[in-house]
Amino acid sequence: MRYRRPAALLAVALAGALTLAGCGDGGKDGADGKAGGSGTRTVTDANGEKVKVPAAPQKVVTLSEPTLDAALALGTRPIGATSGRGQSGVSGYLAPKAGSAEIVANTAEPDLDKLAALRPDLILLDETVGAKRVQDKLRRIAPTVLTAKLNAPWRDAFTATADALGRKADGAKWLTSFDSRLKTVKDGLGPNAGAVTSVIRWQNGAPSIVGKGKGHVGDTLAALGLKRPQGQQGESSGHSEPVSLERLDTIDGDWLFIGALGDRAAGDKALEEATAVPNFTKLKAVEKHHVVVIDGSAWNSSGGPLAAQAVLTDVEKALTKKS
To answer: Which segments constitute the Fe/B12 periplasmic-binding domain (predicted)?
Structure first.
């Protein structure tokens, strides 16, 4: 799906947004229920550019999964957001917290008219989405911060988003709590300590490798001391890497986490399809009943603190209770 609107309509919307930006702080509650503040502060974006942002932004629009994830983790509910990868609304794992955030973009591009009509006071995005190509137009609507480059560590992206929202200290506290839980889960792995852990998405009759590198999946598994199959080590060449049915042995491991682009129910369907493939049932993880269906909307997302939290929860449930 591609968003296209008449240029005249966009001009009207931009004019309205710019008028609002010049009117100052109204002091009203924002979408996250916090009282509005006054003044501005300056942050440095991922390109090294200085951006003047509201000291206490109240009408935030997030144009990527990581920035939406991070904002929600910090208690900020954006008024506008992007749809999840392969989904019509926000990523399923974020939907309960996102509330009524209006969809104003997909991963390919934003709908500038819808976005401008919301009259945001801050726009957040990163290089995981196509909106990075129209930052000049976004800046005409509201202060715009590019929080992270493509393949940046999720923790760095989270910290940058927290800084843009004026909540860097809250972000640090969140990470401290997460790391404490990481240690608890790692200590409870028992016989699964150091287990070889494979992560795949099953789609269109075949698997794809996901979660390589320093994203929320790879980073969390590495922090737990879990190993990856040889083909799942190093950086990813894209969001996912297809695997032919003739090479299913390369996705095997002590444990196999499988999902789809959608929720856990979609993952159940994906596993059903996979088990119909003869070689899949011969995998060591399958024979040992070490296959775990995951919420693909979290594991296969572009990442963020809440996605990392979902990965940690699934690993804890599976590997700390079974041998």
So the answer is: 59-323
